[in-house]
Amino acid sequence: xxxxxxxxxxxxxxxxxxxxxxxxxxxxxxxxxxxxLQLVFDLHRLLRKRAVFSDVTTFVFRxxxxxxxxxxxxxxxxxxxxxxxAPAAFPLDFVxxxxxxxxxxxxxxxxxxxxxxxFEGMGASREATFGALxxxxxxxxxxxxxxxxxxxxxxxALLLEARGGxxxxxxxxxxxxxxxxxxxxxxxxxxxxxxHLELTMVHEVMILDHSGPELAALQAAAALKLTVALGxxxxxxxxxxxxxxxxxxxxxxxxxxxLLAVFLGTVESLVARLKLRVVPQYIVVAFAAxxxxxxxxxxxxxxx
Amino acid sequence: MIQAQRFERIxxxxxxxxxxxxxxxLRARVHLLSLFGRRDGxxxxxxxxxxxxxxxxxxxxxRVAALGYASLTPQFPALHIFERELHEQxxxxxxxHPWCRPVRFExxxxxxxDRHPFHVVAGKEVHEVAVGPIHAGVIEPGAFRFMCLxxxxxxxxxxxxxxxxxxxxxxxxxxxxxxxxxxxxxxxxTSVGHAWxxxxxxxxxxxxxxxxxxxxxRAILLEFExxxxxxxxxxxxAADVGFLQGAATFGRLRxxxxxxxxxLCGSRFGRxxxxxxxTRATLDGFAGTGPTTGLSLPExxxxxxxxxxxxQTVEDLFTSARTVRHRLEGVxxxxxxxxxAIGLVGPVARAAAAHRDLRVRGPAAYDPPVGLAxxxxxxxxxxxxxxxxxxxxxxxxxxxxxxxAPHWTTSRVSIGAxxxxxxxxxxxxxxRGEIVHALETDGDGRLxxxxxxxxxxxxxxxxxxxxxxxxxxxxxxCNKTFDLSYCGNDL
Lengths: 304, 491
Fold this sequence. Notes:
The complex is a heterodimer.
Chain A: H1 3-28, H2 38-47, H3 59-78, H4 93-114, H5 118-149, H6 156-159, H7 168-184, H8 203-206, H9 212-237, H10 246-270, H11 279-296
Chain B: E1 3-8, E2 12-13, H1 15-27, E3 31-40, E4 43-51, E5 57-64, E6 69-70, H2 80-90, E7 94-95, E8 126-131, E9 143-149, E10 152-159, H3 167-173, H4 180-184, H5 191-206, H6 212-240, H7 244-265, E11 274-275, E12 278-279, H8 297-320, H9 322-328, H10 336-341, H11 347-350, H12 380-403, E13 422-430, E14 433-441, E15 447-453, H13 456-466, H14 475-482, H15 486-490
Parallel strand pairs in B: 2-5, 6-7
Antiparallel strand pairs in B: 1-13, 3-4, 4-5, 8-9, 9-10, 11-12, 13-14, 14-15
Helix pairs in contact in B: 5-6, 6-7, 6-12, 6-14, 7-8, 8-12, 12-14
């Protein structure tokens, strides 16, 4: 599948995932909800606005949103979001991915610290804690999948089911990755994307001072991260991967990504947010699941 | 239904005598309603209002020279805010007050909030977070400074007074019979509570107490106000813990309730409904002097049924959600002993095992009776449950009050001259606790002092102490479950 088509599909999928999530939450609370393409309207509005920069900020603050967006875009290139081989897959691409994502995270945190606001400092500190806890979980999951399939790249996710990984490795990986989605895209119960309370925010507080095109870049990056992460989980869940023509697999994967967005929205509507002190424990659940997956690869002999 | 007590010929005691009597009463755990003063020449008349267990109010007054007196706060912390206010309003020296900081930046200090003497905490791990005075949610202004160790709050200092409008001075400048609109804006969401206290005080001063029918109708308005505002608070709590269904439904029910108030009296916040000598709230079928409201008794019952039914559903969802419980339990605790020591009032105190509710016991007790809501947890969970219980009690009471079939005709008694040289104390259990209005006249029957006290004044310290050693990210839910009024404090 051509790189262009792959990229275009994900870009189209992006606002739909965010829109579906918003709609789901609205329906659970008895409202009609925003249009499915609200993200597009928001970005369009923000791009026409002028950014306002505080006097105390430096170029770090201005640069950070674009670094965050760039890191999110590169992730699109290597993760098999659509259930087929990603256009830029290469051996050990997940290591590259983890640190490009880390670069984006660092840019976001530096931008927040650059404002000198105590709120944003707290947000950055929380983000650093959560990020540090999540990284080992990602590596453990990838390690498990690579051991099981013998392919040391993200592509292993495509082969996991075919190589007999339908058991513990598969299930535990999905659990770990789903919690990863919640942490990485700042969803409930880890972070509350709708809150207005700066003292409790994690992701939202770090983008509080950004405006105009810079805010648009950050929102686009957040939507991309969410779509890519949900797409990866969909790939693992998709029973057709590797067993049907490309177009069928891709359609099924897109549909499953949408369903996952609905599921995420439902979870978000039915639970309250965790205490901030407990969030690290929740992330450790992801690591525990990932470790279980890794251990399970030793049970019945891994593939060569 | 309402307590408005009139005092004439109040003895003026010497400072030592007065101090001894107040100390004795407080030792015997008599409830202190208020402590305030007014300048009289070079001296200051300091008045303490105490409420005995049977509900009767006692007045202890002293004539104090500008030299001042030795503070009672070190022994009785509940007095701290009153003595600070006394010092600020009258210039009286309060010797040995441990924490004599500005309450509202009165007089020469007015507007100098940026020079508030915040405590300073030093150390490698310490960081300070300044919140406000402009609130992100564009609510009322107040400056909060957190001294934190990492994510844990070591101390919170609250600096209020940004909305100080000089209410007490304004009240003396206008005709005493037409203060209604001013009194209703002391704290906008407690319009009915303050208007009732004011009207009852004036009626007691002129010797024209309201009829039981009229008091019942006023109480109905007050309970609607309580239900509406408790629902708003609960919607806020649900939103702050991220429980969407609660946030949406509690908020929707509040609209039903305040729309009912609007159709009863023309204002969603009950403004203009209660005035000295009259209660302008009416139902269809009682062709009084007012225009038709389009609201009939069956419609009131239908609205109550809707609220009760949907409240039951969402309350079950809210209280049975383990994540909600986990988020609120054990957070922002105020022990019963601490609550009593610092003199908390209202639902906040009742969430910490207090049994004080003017509507339940004493001269202002409701007829038909209303249930008492009290919990012993003292944390955010307790405060939330007390509000939910009070909602149920108020809704049940509203049913039985409507069954008493009060006569909804707008009547009007013209208000006569005020009794000279008298002090009237009016008490109303508002949605945040006891509202105290104390009015005093001089020898010519002119008003010389109008003391307004919103329950928030005493409860703000409770919030500051509740968040100690809690996570800073839990401050918003502590703040929301206390749900105090900024303008009620700032006057």
